[in-house]
Structure formats: C-alpha cells, structure tokens
UniProtKB/TrEMBL annotation:
Keywords: Fatty acid metabolism, Ligase, Lipid metabolism. The lineage of its organism: Bacteria, Pseudomonadati, Pseudomonadota, Betaproteobacteria, Neisseriales. It comes from Crenobacter intestini. It comes from the Bacteria. GO terms for biological process: fatty acid metabolic process. InterPro entries: AMP-bd_C, AMP-bd_C_sf, AMP-binding_CS, AMP-dep_synth/lig_dom, ANL_N_sf. Belongs to the ATP-dependent AMP-binding enzyme family. This is Long-chain-fatty-acid--CoA ligase.
Amino acid sequence: MMLRGQMMDMPLLISDLLTHAENYHGDSEIVSRTVEGPIHRYTYRDAAKRARQLANALKDLQVAMGDRVGTLAWNGYRHYEIYYAVSGSGSVCHTVNPRLFAEQISYIINHAEDQVLFFELSFLPQVEQIVGELKTVRHFVLMTDRANMPRETSIPNLICYEDLVNSHSDQLAWPQFDENTASSLCYTSGTTGNPKGVMYSHRSTVLHAFASSLPDSLDISAQSAVMPVVPMFHVNGWGLPYSCTMNGAKLVLPGPKMDGVNLYELIEEEGVTMAAGVPTIWMMLLQHCQRNHLKIHPLKRVIIGGSAAPESMVDQLAEHGAEVRQLWGMTELSPCGTTSTPKFKHNGCNTATLRHLQGKQGRPIYGVQIRIVDDEGQPLPHDGKAFGNLQVKGPWVLSQYFGRELDDNHTADGWFNTGDVVNIDADGYMKITDRTKDVIKSGGEWISSIELENIMVGHPAVQEAAAIGVVHPKWDERPLMVVVLKEGASATRDELIGFFEGKIAKWWTPDDVAFVDELPHTATGKLQKLKLREMFKDYQW
Ligand code: ADP
C-alpha cells in the first residue's frame, strides 16, 4: 500500500521568488541601464512593491488568468516588474523578440492572442508600423514616464507605464493556484517555417531556477553580482531574472547597450562577478579591452551559450581572470540543459585538459536526461566517439508547442528531439558537432562545421567564420570556409587553410576560403547557415 508523505503541499509559484527576495534580500540591488539614458538603481524591496502595483493595474485593465501579455523590451527593471506582475497574477508573460522582422512580430503576437502589449521607447516606430495588423491587443503601454511620452502617435489610447503603476496601490496578496498554470511564453526564432511557441509553467520555471542556481550549473548566490547580457526577450534571459531573485543576487541589467564600451563600464562600476551571453558579446568586449589596453577586474565567471565558445575566447577571458563555463540549452529547455563544469577528478589538471572540457557543451544538470540515437532511433553508446541525434527529457523540457496539434518533435516514449548532432563521453560530457541540418557530409562521413569555425576564429586576422558544405562531384560535399576579416587585417586563402594543419584530421580541412564583408545572422545572433548555403549554391570548386 502507498503511504503518503506528510509534508506541506504548496505550489511552486513565481510570485514567491520575489516575496522571498523582498523579505530576506530587500536591500540587494537591481541596477539597469535605461533606454532614456541614465542608470536606474533600486532594490528587490522596491521591485516587489512596484510589481504589486502593476498587478493591481492589470486587474483594472481586465487581464484575466491565462491571458497573454506581450512585451517588446530590453533587460531592465520595468521588464523585470512585468515578468513578476504578469506571471504572479496567473497571466502569461509573452516576451517577443524585437529583432525579428515586422511580419514575424505581428504573426507571433496574433498567434499568442496577446491582450496587452508593453513596449519600450526604442520600439515605438516598430509598433506604430504594425499596430493595424494586431488583432487581439486591447491596450498598448509605453514603458516610460510622462516626460518621455510622444506628442503624437498612431497608437490608439497609448498608456504611460509610470502613470499606470503609480496610480495603483501596492496592497495585494498574490493569488495562489496550481503550479502547472502557464506562466510565460517564448517563440523560437524559427530559422525554418513560422516561429513556434514554448509555454512555460510556474512549476517548470521554479524548478529550473533551483537547478540552474546550483554550484555546478550557473552557481548563483547572494554573494554574486550577475549581469544577464542574454536578452530577457529570449528564453527568459536564461532564467536569470528568476534564479537571481531566488538567491538574492545583485542584478545588473545592461538595457539596450550591449557593446564593449558599455558592458566594460557596467562590469567595473557595478562589480559584476558573473555574466552570461552569446559568444558575439564577449568578442566585442574582448576587442574593446584589447584596443584600449584594459583589464577586466571583478569578473570571476562568464557563461557562454547559444553557440559554441571558441577556445581562443576561453583563453582570452582566462587572462582577465574569468573562468568560462559553456551552457548548452534551447528555448524548449527553459533553456538550461548542460554545463561544462569540471569534476573532482579534474582538480589540478593542466590547462590543455581543462580547455578540452570547456570545449564541450557539458554534462546534464540534475533534472535533465540526455541520450543519443541513430537515424533509426536506436540508442548509441556514450563513449565520446559515436555521434547521433541528441534527445532530452525533464520537468522543464517542452512537451508540446503552443497551439499546435501536430508534433513530430517527440518520440513515442516521450523524448524531445533537439536537432543537435552530438557525442557523449563516459563522464556524461556532451559535445555538439552540428545542428542536424548543418552537418557537412564528405564521402559519407560527417565533418563538424562547428569545430572548423572554432579553429578558424582562433586566427588573429579572422573576425568571424562559417563552414558550410558545398556540393562536390566526388565527395558529395566538401567544406567551404566563409570568412570575415578583422578591420584592417589581411590574410590569404593559403594562410588560412594552413592554419588547420595539425589541428584536425587532414580530410576535414576546408577545400577553399571565401572572403565576405559580413555573415547573415538570425534575430538571436546565430549564423544563418541556410541563407549562406543559398548564397554559395552555385559555387564552383
Ligand atoms: P533558436 O530559437 O535559434 O533555436 P535556441 O536558443 O533555442 O534558439 O537555440 C538552441 C540551439 O542553439 C541548440 O539546439 C544548439 O544548436 C545551439 N546551442 C545552444 N547552446 C550552445 C552551445 N553552448 N554550443 C553550441 N551550440 C549551442
């Protein structure tokens, strides 16, 4: 007979994260660079009070449980308040990526049926452009104060955020409901086809915050000052607005300015100990430091994810005293899946071994299960050699896309197909060789485009590089390296090809190099390989 445990049955709710921070880390700071210009500084206590005021305002705007509320916003305190006010009320905080094309933005807002749209001053022209297309939005709120409201606009009954917050009381008891209630929504960038919505729950978000805070995950504590450079409009800023609140860490939000100069200034002035973002961001920061002979002081750790972290970047950050940890994740995973953190047995290992580990996407954080299968769906060994399609399971992994019946992303026994091609070693460390659709197949064998790119950006003259497979009469496909050189730098084809010597198997070496001024990127800053392959489809060897 089943004997029931006798512990309190309490739902895991997002509002409790903020209440905890208010009660026990009330004076910890949230510092934001604003669109309007100045740095804004307040505490978790202030944020909690304003989130309650905003929740009361949402009630007045007749936002009901389950209603979707859209945002077009940077990483800043107002966006943070919206996260908590909306989800805390039982409605759904739908972060929209403002870097998408206008048609994609209106598609996403209409598909989600957003009732209210909060947006920042930077996006006023974009919203004015699409306002006629938005079928369900009842209220538009501009996230600014009275002084910055536009004199004229085509947006009907535009509400001023500060007026809305200030005209409401901060007296509110957060509603209690089932922890499986939807909390937030994020669409994947959709490199192919229309974007697909991932609907998170209170339970998945709080569990993800617990697990991602662990020392071997992102290691977040009340002693940290954390700067999420990864946007809050993309996968909830890797969950940092939740995990930092859970732990009472100081939050440093860079707003619209994610360039080297501004990030460097924030890190130094706010004593940022940990920062998280995609490789492009760190490339800009490191270039700024190099050009101006600057040293980064307080930063202890940099979390790099979204794309592979090149070894040269890991080395350079180490020179500044910052340890790099790779994070692998996906919108569908809330997003944290694996981190490249060493184990006890690696203590005291040499730099080469450490770099080898850091070059992998990492081992699963507790809660995430991973496996690899071949094209027939048969599980493959975890021996660090066999590579196949990565599948995952876990309480913060998507079970179904929002508003879609058809699902070809899950196996019959409930594993989610990630679309990444990887190997997993005996210690559980996973290494991505490619996205399924990006692998280069030469003579029936896979060549890792990611590996080629990582090596190529280690060349001092190379700013950015992409390896693609181009049709070849004998080998089916051979790798072509498409390169953007650094400003003022020069390098020949032969020099760049020679750079691979001794670093990889000979047959992996790209057959040719094409020089371009820039590479195509998706709205989330990833290389758009599909577009690149189209650009080079008529390429002759
Ligand atoms: P998108 O919406 O563009 O798919 P995601 O952030 O969900 O954006 O992208 C997830 C994908 O990004 C992963 O499936 C993987 O291919 C890639 N990715 C994420 N983290 C890493 C990493 N550390 N190294 C290499 N690739 C990564």
